[in-house]
Design goal:
Length: about 350
């Protein structure tokens, strides 16, 4: 079986065609959350990954990819720390405490460290791509010149799951971070698709990929409940899977953006009553969540509760947990989505 078939690694150059609506009448989430759909400030803010050794992982993303450490939040009472990284940005907002408002941006990577894992020789992070614990797939960085980027990364000691020359997919590569998480690499310079070339603006944190059991159910949840827009679909008949790209931004092609969510659907999983993906938060842990943020997410959370009641599961309802002014909602596969306001001070 090919690498692309087994792990669903694909990225096709194709015309920029948006698919903004679901293909059929809603079957699972037919009540639209208007406060999400009509919210102009909503964004996919960050993706959380657990790491074994924070010093090693932070150094990797800084030295190999040029990310900046924007914020280091410490929670000694709960025995974990958070590290917020981003590719360099020209302008950053600040919260009321004067720190960078890491919840007001797109393209943030949050690394979570639970105290003591770095000293445990038996501890290993679940990267989401090994059976029987597949679920989360990868994060994706985009660049202008993918050939040169891959050459530079390999020369700088970065390991690869898939090089550009491997397999049939010659336009993508997959690097590996210190915990074995996969980092897809793609190009945002696609003159054949857009009719123009794009300038080199460095790296972008393009998307996060998770596998889903029932594509229709997941698409309805992310669009009707959380207000995302389906901006592109890539169907692969031979390998029997489809990729769906969702965003809060419909103004530009997906490969030029930051803060997208990619849903991967293997055909037939929706018909298997025993099939289940690993959500990253059950043992063995790895992937944590994506986070959406806005100016006033409490209104959206209350509307979701009002319209769906017990139909939708919550990890923590808004402002009801130990950490205030946030919520964790669960999607149809049990993946967690954090919901926070801009300016949140932990």
């Amino acid at each position: 079986m090919s690498l692309s078939r087994l792990y669903l690694l694909t990225e096709t150059f194709r015309p920029w065609i948006y698919h903004r609506t679901m293909s059929s009448k809603p079957q699972f989430y037919n009540k639209k959350v208007e406060s999400a759909i009509n919210c102009s400030s909503l964004k996919l803010n960050h993706t959380c990954l657990r790491v074994k050794d924070p010093e090693r992982s932070v150094a990797f993303y800084k030295s190999k990819f040029g990310m900046d450490l924007l914020e280091h939040k410490k929670f000694p009472d709960m025995k974990f720390n958070l590290y917020f990284l981003s590719f360099p940005k020209s302008k950053l907002n600040h919260n009321k405490d004067g720190a960078v408002d890491v919840f007001c941006e797109n393209g943030i990577l949050e690394l979570t460290h639970n105290y003591g894992t770095e000293n445990d020789p038996d501890f290993k992070v679940n990267n989401g791509n090994e059976e029987p614990h597949r679920g989360f797939g990868h994060i994706c960085f985009s660049v202008k010149n993918i050939e040169k980027t891959c050459q530079d990364l390999e020369a700088n000691g970065v390991s690869f799951q898939k090089r550009l020359t491997d397999g049939r997919q010659k336009s993508i590569a997959f690097a590996l971070d210190p915990d074995g998480y996969w980092i897809e690499l793609i190009s945002y310079d696609r003159p054949e698709a857009e009719g123009k070339s794009r300038p080199d603006v460095g790296y972008k944190f393009n998307h996060t990929m998770i596998r889903v059991k029932n594509a229709q159910k997941s698409l309805e949840f992310y669009q009707n409940v959380l207000g995302m827009k389906l901006i592109d679909t890539s169907k692969h008949e031979n390998a029997k899977f489809t990729l769906y790209f969702l965003s809060y931004n419909t103004d530009s092609p997906r490969w030029t953006q930051e803060g997208l969510l990619e849903l991967t659907h293997n055909w037939g999983t929706e018909n298997d009553p025993e099939f289940k993906y690993h959500n990253g938060n059950e043992k063995p842990q790895g992937y944590g969540h994506i986070c959406i943020s806005s100016e006033d997410p409490e209104v959206m959370c209350k509307e979701i509760e009002s319209k769906y009641g017990d139909e939708i599961q919550w990890g923590v309802k808004f402002n009801q947990g130990k950490m205030k002014n946030l919520a964790f909602i669960k999607d149809p596969d049990g993946y967690s989505i954090e919901v926070v306001p801009f300016g949140l001070c932990c």
